[in-house]
Design goal:
The chain is mainly β. It has a single domain, classed as Immunoglobulin-like. Helices cover 12% and strands 43% of the residues. The protein is built from two helices and eight strands, in the order ααββββββββ. The strands form two sheets. A five-stranded mixed beta sheet has the order 2-8-7-4-5, with no helix packed on it. A three-stranded antiparallel beta sheet has the order 1-3-6, with no helix packed on it. The chain is elongated, with a radius of gyration of 20 Å.
Length: 141
């Protein structure tokens, strides 16, 4: 039994890294730049599908951004039909302006029709800048 387990471990280690992802779903990661800033602020958000296989489910999704300030944005692309040799788009970016201080939990959702296929969140901390008396983004709240 022990020899079989060692052989399985050795076999798993011998498989190339890319082959391990075959058949796996990509994971969505979301980053903000800057993550901490002063108001008024424009923040660049980058959502990226990492790892996994180029599955047709992830081809040409609608991208919904929830800015956590009462606003949402949706982008729906008009794409040609998926071909198995075609790579999926893995990076989506958007900019958003935050005029007032606050901590905002931004969420990006990839949709295929009405089905959520991937979701990621990150937070943006906007501190009160010159002339912003909103009081948000302050640690004393």
């Amino acid at each position: 039994m022990r020899a079989v387990m060692i052989s399985l471990v050795t076999l798993a280690m011998a498989v190339p890294v890319g082959a391990r992802d075959k058949g796996k779903r990509p994971q969505l990661d979301l980053r903000a730049a800057p993550r901490v800033t002063f108001s008024p602020a424009v923040v660049l958000l980058t959502a990226e599908l990492k790892g996994g296989q180029d599955l047709d489910e992830y081809y040409c999704p609608a991208v919904e951004w929830d800015w956590d300030d009462g606003g949402k944005s949706t982008h729906e692309a008009d794409c040609d039909p998926f071909e198995t040799s075609q790579a999926i788009e893995r990076r989506y970016t958007a900019e958003h302006a935050y005029p007032q201080a606050g901590t905002y939990n931004v969420k990006v959702t990839l949709l295929r029709g009405t089905k959520k296929i991937a979701v990621a969140t990150t937070s943006v901390n906007v501190r009160a800048g010159a002339g912003d008396f909103s009081g948000g983004g302050d640690d004393s709240q």
